[in-house]
């Protein structure tokens, strides 16, 4: 059969007509005909509906790893797999989630927009550590959480996971005033009850290394401040204590922010783990133990779980030999926190879009805190047109736009949903072929336009679902069907 778009659509229409006749008793049933069409994926419509039952695997079933590693369980904060300590507050509305997501995306694009020259390849990267992670709402957007223990004796903390920031922090007693700490389910961390806690002194090297996160000194204690893209912020005392990731993995003298005043969209969770590229992040602080590499797998649904792992994946022979498709990690001179790769092409329904490489020249930020992927306007327009064309033969009723998402459908009454596949290709040929959960979110095409042609793109967490994403000093690797 011809692989041209016209021939494919004709084949799809014929399949639908024949299957419709079969359903009326005129022809034998032909369920699955659409599934045999190259470049398309068919899933149960029920798979898009949330489940109230957690289908989490045994945490001991995490992927095998060489050397020392720490693995944490990752879950959706408001789903049935959430830790019992996670917020009991209602999940934000879709509209609120997408508004906060837009603020975050705009903030990231502003930060990286000053990187004048083309990015150049980085150089660099031992043991490994894993922590369970959960899908949550970080700073107002759809993110993921893990549970670790802080202090001696250890106190469990449910923490957002963010590759787009560096400094980790928790809410601490006392608050600056009665309204300075937001509501959380756990008691506030009390540094006076930890025998291993210490405030970082102003004159020390750790305080000097805070850089853009520094906020001066008070009573000889080093102050910190972190401001996020949606206007939220946390401020307090830069501190050190023992961070226990798993029964066999503890980070002595872990540097974090002991937050005494928080404002903005934080709700319920105890704090945040920063996984960015600067030295103050968890990745930077544990580089001697875990080699400066980490990986994560974001679960496809709130009713399933993923993982966050510090250290190298198992199997030996490098990421490529372990089943990862790898692409080069690039620097961002104006925003060194971010992990940046080079998107080179997009295909829909197995057909490459006619988008020139210059459209993606600004690079792509890999970010767990952004929900839907942002593309330069021309690239998004080409993706949207091809996707709408691929879906058209099935006659799904359109639904109203949902905030920043402008290609939405009503699947009520359908037993199955057939979609054209979407694949993202990066430099060195690394390709992410997305499943249905990576194509649609909230009933809409989970992509949006942002910035300008040739500017920065953002790979959001919807498109990263179910892939193990491995990041080290030189590359980012993607391994499908990993959680």
UniProtKB/TrEMBL annotation:
Residues 1-25 form the signal peptide. It comes from the Eukaryota. PROSITE patterns: PEPTIDASE_A1. This is Peptidase A1 domain-containing protein. Residues 144-481 form the Peptidase A1 domain. The lineage of its organism: Eukaryota, Viridiplantae, Streptophyta, Embryophyta, Tracheophyta. The active site is at 162, 367. Keywords: Aspartyl protease, Disulfide bond, Hydrolase, Protease, Signal. It holds the Pfam family TAXi_N. InterPro entries: Aspartic_peptidase_A1, PEPTIDASE_A1, Peptidase_aspartic_dom_sf, TAXi_C, TAXi_N. One of its GO terms (biological process) is proteolysis. Coiled coil: none annotated. Belongs to the peptidase A1 family. GO terms for molecular function: aspartic-type endopeptidase activity.
């Amino acid at each position: 059969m011809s692989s041209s778009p016209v021939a494919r659509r004709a084949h799809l229409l014929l399949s639908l007509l024949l299957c419709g006749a079969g359903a009326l008793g005129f022809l034998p049933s032909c369920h699955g005909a659409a599934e045999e069409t190259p470049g398309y994926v068919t899933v149960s419509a029920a798979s898009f509906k949330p489940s109230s039952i957690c289908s989490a695997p045994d945490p001991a079933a995490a992927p095998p790893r060489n050397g020392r590693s720490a693995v944490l369980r990752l879950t959706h904060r408001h789903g049935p797999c959430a830790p019992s300590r996670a917020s009991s507050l209602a999940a934000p509305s879709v509209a609120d989630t997408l508004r906060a997501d837009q603020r975050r995306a705009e903030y990231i694009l502003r930060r990286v927009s000053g990187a004048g020259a083309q990015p150049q390849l980085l150089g660099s990267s031992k043991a490994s550590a894993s922590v369970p992670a959960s899908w949550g709402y970080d700073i107002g957007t759809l993110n993921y959480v893990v549970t670790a223990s802080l202090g001696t004796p250890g106190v469990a903390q449910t923490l957002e996971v963010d590759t787009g920031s560096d400094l980790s922090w928790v809410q601490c007693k006392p608050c600056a005033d009665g309204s300075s700490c937001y509501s959380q389910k756990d008691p506030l961390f009390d540094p006076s009850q930890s025998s291993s806690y210490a405030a970082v002194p102003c004159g020390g090297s750790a305080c000097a290394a805070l850089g853009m996160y520094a906020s001066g000194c008070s009573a000889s204690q080093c102050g910190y401040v972190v401001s996020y893209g949606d206007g939220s912020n946390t401020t307090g005392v830069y501190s050190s204590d023992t961070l226990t990731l798993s029964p066999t993995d503890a980070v002595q003298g872990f540097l974090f922010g002991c937050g005494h005043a928080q404002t903005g969209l934080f709700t319920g969770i105890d704090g945040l783990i920063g996984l960015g590229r600067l030295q103050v992040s968890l990745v930077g602080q544990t580089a001697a133990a875990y080699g400066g590499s980490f990986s994560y797998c974001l679960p496809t649904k709130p009713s399933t779980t993923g993982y966050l792992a510090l250290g190298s994946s198992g199997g030996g022979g490098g990421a490529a030999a372990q089943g990862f498709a790898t692409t080069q990690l690039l620097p961002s001179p104006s925003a060194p926190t971010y992990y940046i790769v080079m998107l080179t092409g997009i295909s829909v329904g197995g057909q490459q879009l006619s988008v020139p490489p210059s459209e993606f020249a600004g690079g792509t930020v890999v970010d767990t805190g952004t929900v839907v992927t942002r593309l330069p306007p021309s690239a998004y327009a080409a993706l949207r047109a091809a996707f709408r064309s691929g879906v058209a033969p099935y006659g799904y009723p359109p639904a109203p736009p949902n905030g920043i998402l402008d290609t939405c459908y009503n699947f009520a009454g359908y037993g199955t949903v057939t979609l054209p596949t979407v694949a993202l290709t990066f430099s060195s040929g690394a390709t992410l072929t997305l499943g249905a959960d990576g194509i649609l979110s909230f009933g809409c095409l989970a992509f949006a336009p942002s910035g300008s042609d040739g500017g920065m793109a953002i790979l959001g967490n919807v498109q990263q679902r179910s892939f193990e994403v491995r990041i080290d000093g030189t590359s980012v690797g993607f391994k499908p069907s990993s959680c």
